[in-house]
Amino acid sequence: MSETLENLYSETRQFPPPEELAANANVKADAYNEAAADRLAYWAKQAERLSWAKSWDEILDWSNPPFAKWFIGGELNVAYNCVDRHVEAGHGDKVAIHWEGEPGDTRTVTYADLLKSVSQAANTLTELGISAGDRVAIYLPMIPEAAVAMLACARVGATHSVVFGGFSVDALSTRIQDADAKLVITADGGYRRGKPSALKPTVDEAVAKCPSIENVLVIRRTGQEVAWTDKDKWWHETVEQASPEHTAQPFDSEHPLFILYTSGTTGKPKGILHTTGGYLTQTSYTHHAVFDLKPETDVYWCTADIGWVTGHSYIVYGPLSNGATQVMYEGTPDTPGRDRFWQLVDKYQVSILYTAPTLIRTMMKWGDDLPAGYDLSSLRILGSVGEPINPEAWMWYREHIGRNRTPVVDTWWQTETGAIMISPLPGVTAAKPGSAMTPLPGISGDVVDDTAQSVPNGGGGFLVLRDPWPSMLRTIWGDDKRFIDTYWSRFGAGAGQGDAVTASSGKEWVYFAGDGAKRDDDGSIWLLGRVDDVMLISGHNISTTEVESALVSHPSVAESAVVGATDPTTGQAIVAFVIPRGKVDTAGDKGEELTAELRNHVAKTLGPIAKPRQIMLVPELPKTRSGKIMRRLLKDVAEHRSLGDVTTLQDSAVMDLISQGMKGAK
Ligand code: 6R9
């Protein structure tokens, strides 16, 4: 990619916060000034929201960049912060988790219940020989024990590595091996799409390839038959029989809390390492600031899976450290019906909803009538994460779910950043549909050109982060060099010098996020997708996001994915895959009429340069378990290649459907 990204899309709608929300917001506009005046003091103040067994001596040690240390000398226990302190403050009876199983069974878990389970699980971990610094793999469905298992690890100082339930034997075993884990916590299975889906057989096969595993703790969820080995122990025969007394020991602020693997498009998965004090400080603070959580009255629901970083930071650590009451749902959004989400919002009177653009666009496809049938008046803040949210999807979310009242916060961050970095503040920002707006107080995000110079307003380029932040990744597990190469060698002090760089080079270290972005005329930041996906059409750098947003702005389109396919005349040409909205008729000639109309619509919205060469109408798009579109597979289809790595695909049947449709096309 050369200096800039073409800036084709313009959006002028803007929505200031409701007055009452603004007046009572947890974080107000002065926070930006306060953080700008003294960034480290600002973070130290946020760290004080937590309970420390020993205070820190120094806020940030950046003497050995890019290896940061935060709150040096401080000691705390993460589980104590997420559970015990709320019980000690008299909130033991408060609901922590309203859990809803897919078949409709429910459990209500209070903070006192959570304390009991986490303490019991911590005692069992100790009995099984797990001590501080050991690694534990967690492979579970969305049941309360998933949070309990993570917190129990944190409580005894073990480093957890959560793997999406449903990932393959290969994915699970390579992650266990890379982290050299001693224990797996799993379940017989979980419910997905109306039926039990087994997990234990995958664990059995994986463990057979992983000699480091000494024990497997198995939760009974579905009651399916399971094979049994002498490493296996039932959770209900161990944890649930263990003593509920356990005193949490504090750990060093830089003690490893978890490893979470990100797949990326090439190479082996990267084990992103997060530590204790800085991570909890920023997840807790951002959850408080971005969702304006009022723990006494709000009911919060993040629809992510715990296998995704969003589940770590915004189901477990952020919300629980803030004493939130939240909803946790086991299953898929279309079981038993496509109204399940709205039924749950209505039933639990959810006030803060945090979900992904993929789900919002799916809901658009399913039609406006479904949410219209429910009382969604409890909602006061809506959040989005995972991909750029197209302006039309943002508008639909605000209108049909937020009933035109609620702020929408589009939150940009990554597994690597650990917590939200760029987002509106719901009581401060006049948000624009499709923009993540501005870095949070204490965060320095920037959009730069090839030479790491900030682009002017109206320009596009690469998203970077300039100063270390508390919840930043500390390294890639076992691979410091890859950590430097991947994130720190594109720009700034680390550029082109490999690991020979020293702090004395005088240049600033710049974190390369791998995302394209632009700054609009007011300076607001718009994310434009992964730089690997940027298309080069007749010498113009065009982002996939802008073309997709143009397509989604057409009333017949629910969702779209575009890729640049090799083309003899233009270098690359735009090929678009489009899912029509629910009621759109695409039978016979109607389909061709629609694609012709859509090609013209894009040309009219963005200019002729962005007109797709070809548009395919498809029933589904290939997505990861966290809902990100896998454009690389669509590119393989568009260029008539056999498919690359499909191990992280959510539903493998989708690619067959798309490839078949492609064969039928010219
Ligand atoms: C939290 C999470 C990180 C990548 C990131 C970017 C994309 C996430 C976004 C967004 C535009 C947003 N991304 N949030 N793009 N707007 N609000 O998703 O972590 O799974 O590691 O993915 O997701 O491309 O670089 P992770």
TrEMBL record:
Residue ranges annotated for the AMP-binding enzyme C-terminal domain, each copy included: 546-628
UniProt-annotated binding residues for Mg(2+): 552, 554, 557
Pfam families: ACAS_N (PF16177), AMP-binding (PF00501), AMP-binding_C (PF13193)
Cofactor: Mg(2+)
Domain Acetyl-coenzyme A synthetase N-terminal span(s) in chain numbering: 30-82
Single Gene Ontology BP annotation: acetyl-CoA biosynthetic process from acetate
PANTHER family: ACETYL-COENZYME A SYNTHETASE, ACETYL-COENZYME A SYNTHETASE 1
Protein residues bound to CoA: 192-195, 310, 538
Alphabetical list of InterPro entries matching this protein: Ac_CoA_lig, ACAS_N, AMP-bd_C, AMP-bd_C_sf, AMP-binding_CS, AMP-dep_synth/lig_dom, ANL_N_sf
Keyword Magnesium on entry: yes
PROSITE patterns attached to this UniProt entry: AMP_BINDING
The family this protein is said to belong to: Belongs to the ATP-dependent AMP-binding enzyme family.
Uppermost EC category: ligase
Catalytic activity, as annotated: acetate + ATP + CoA = acetyl-CoA + AMP + diphosphate
Residue numbers carrying N6-acetyllysine: 628
Swiss-Prot/TrEMBL keywords: Acetylation, ATP-binding, Ligase, Magnesium, Metal-binding, Nucleotide-binding
GO molecular function: acetate-CoA ligase activity; AMP binding; ATP binding; metal ion binding
Enzyme Commission number: 6.2.1.1
Function, as annotated: Catalyzes the conversion of acetate into acetyl-CoA (AcCoA), an essential intermediate at the junction of anabolic and catabolic pathways. AcsA undergoes a two-step reaction. In the first half reaction, AcsA combines acetate with ATP to form acetyl-adenylate (AcAMP) intermediate. In the second half reaction, it can then transfer the acetyl group from AcAMP to the sulfhydryl group of CoA, forming the product AcCoA.
GO cellular component: a single term: cytosol
Name of this protein: Acetyl-coenzyme A synthetase
Domain AMP-dependent synthetase/ligase intervals: 89-469
